[in-house]
Specification:
3-stranded antiparallel β-sheet; mainly beta; 132 residues; Metal Binding Protein, Guanine Nucleotide Exchange Factor, Chain A; 9 strands
Length: 132
């Protein structure tokens, strides 16, 4: 293709090393992203462990006292420890019993562990965690 007559060759963009980097195809895997306890910074879960329950990852849910929780569902949350006996009372996910999920480091309440016939998951309170 001929160069436009109104431009000199020196006016056209070159292939400088800085521009060449923009054209490289990204082959590296993305850096692993983590969710951390908002209180103490303890690593709680991996972003890639997000799952959908009842068709969605995130849920806005009220407890019996009327408090609203934004809950994200995760296949695992190794930064949590779990307290209490499993109960089906007031469960937000039919067929799943729950117990409390606490931060392993500072004991902040981060959500709930759920177990049912189809397996288990962790529902984390999204306002209690942050991404790093």
């Amino acid at each position: 293709m001929p160069k436009p007559a109104c431009f000199r060759s020196s006016d056209l963009p070159g292939r400088s090393p800085a521009l060449a980097d923009r054209d490289k195809v990204q082959t590296d895997e993305p850096a692993e992203r983590f969710l951390r306890c908002r209180t103490c910074g303890q690593t709680v879960a991996r972003v890639q462990d997000r799952i959908a329950m009842n068709g969605r990852h995130g849920h806005a849910l009220f407890n019996p006292a009327g408090h609203l929780f934004e809950v994200g569902c995760f296949a695992a949350a190794p930064g949590c420890r779990y307290e209490g006996e499993f109960t089906f009372e007031f469960t937000w996910f039919p067929g799943y019993a729950w117990r409390f999920a606490m931060c392993r480091r500072c004991d902040a309440h981060l959500g709930w562990e759920y177990r049912g016939a189809a397996g288990g998951f962790v529902g984390l309170i999204m306002t209690e965690i942050r991404e790093s």
